[in-house]
Amino acid sequence: MNIRIPAASIALAGLAFAGVAAAQDVTGAGASFPAPLYARWAADYNKATGVKINYQSVGSGAGIKQIDAKTVAFGASDMPQKDEDLAKKGQVQFPTVIGGVIPVVNIKGIAAGQLRLNGPVLADIYLGKITKWNDAAIKALNPSLALPDAAISPVRRADGSGTSFIFTNYLSKVSPEWKSKVGEGTAVNWPTGAGGKGNEGVAAFVGRLPNSIGYVEYAYVKQNKMTYALMQNADGKVVAPDDKAFKAAAANADWNKSFYQILTNQPGAESWPITGATFILMHKVQEKPAEGATTLKFFEWAYKSGDKTAEDLDYVPMPASVKAQIEKLWAAEIKDGSGKNVAYK
Q1: DSSP states along 92-114
Q2: Which of 344, 250, 316 shows the shortest CA–CA distance to 96?
């Protein structure tokens, strides 16, 4: 299975803000979780404005490293940075959309939405404790499903990944053994499994490997018509992945308190248990103000004109109140070297 996500490119022409006569192409890099959406936003923005933004889907770990090194105008991560860490690095973060991480399988005779899993079983698969699809723990959740006597082939991310952070954060909440032995992070010491690079790599790997299981963001499930599993959530309800389930999980986020919000294993009968927001990282002091201004103009457009595109790909747009908070953050925190605001207003 070949998954192609076009590299998006955009350049902002003729805008003048914070003393910048003309905008320029900008490049961002990071999470593959939102890459399908950022590519669509970038293409649509290019058609609307003639502006180019390049987004490199390299994984959250690499995106954080690149923004730290100032080699890109913005970084992207599905693992939110703690407020104290951002302060030390002179950075800000803001969420763009919310999505879901989905277990996907390739089991002959099993269709999408037939297999049911829960957190402890998922953790035990990736701990290497459950090794066959007809294991008693899986059969107990699927009494009427014909599960094969076949070895499970787990697939996980090979690169530093915010999708892996969301996934391992969830497993740490539902499995004490996972928390003590493996823990959470963009990269962990996986007990078992073969690695794929990016959401696209994991999706392709599962697509060609019989009896495998992996985890990807929902847009990749839809694009590639993958066989997804249902999940039992914190309320004990079995739920299917979709934007309503992601929205239910996100309802508990307190964005007024901080943009550092983790949305896994949230309460609620409809909540998808492996939900997360994805974030943009920028430096407070912009050494290249034109790039900073172009970046903010692009995301301002995305917040105003990109919600339908996000919904079409089953991401959840940020509420209007949160978007207003984000624009206040831009105005207050993102400046050029002389202290002037680089925002478009």
Answers
A1: EEEEEEEEEEEEEEE-TTPPTTT
A2: 316
Tell me the per-residue pLDDT of 31-45, one tens digit each, with 9 for 90 and over: 999 999 999 999 999
Looking at the DSSP bridge assignments, the partners of residue 317 are 97
Q: Which two tokens stand for residue 245?
A: 């389930």
CA distance 30 to 74: 9
Cβ-contact 211, 133 below 8 angstroms: yes
Whose CA is closest to 226, among 196, 199, 248?
A: 199
User: What is the value of pTM for the model shown?
Assistant: 0.89
**pLDDT tens string 262-296:** 999 999 999 999 999 999 999 999 999 999 999 99
Q: Could you give the CA distance from residue 254 to residue 80 in angstroms, rounded to a whole number?
A: 14
SS3 state of residue 145:
coil
CA–CA dist 122, 117 (Å, integer)? 7
Tell me how far the alpha carbon of residue 162 is from its chain's centroid.
6
The residue type of 215 is Y
159: which 2 tokens? 């690169």
Q: Residue 8, class by beta-carbon neighbours within 10 Å (0-12 exposed, 13-18 middle, 19+ buried)? A: buried
Q: Is 177 helix (H, G, I), strand (E, B) or coil?
A: helix
Q: In angstroms, how far is the first alpha carbon of the chain from the final one?
A: 45
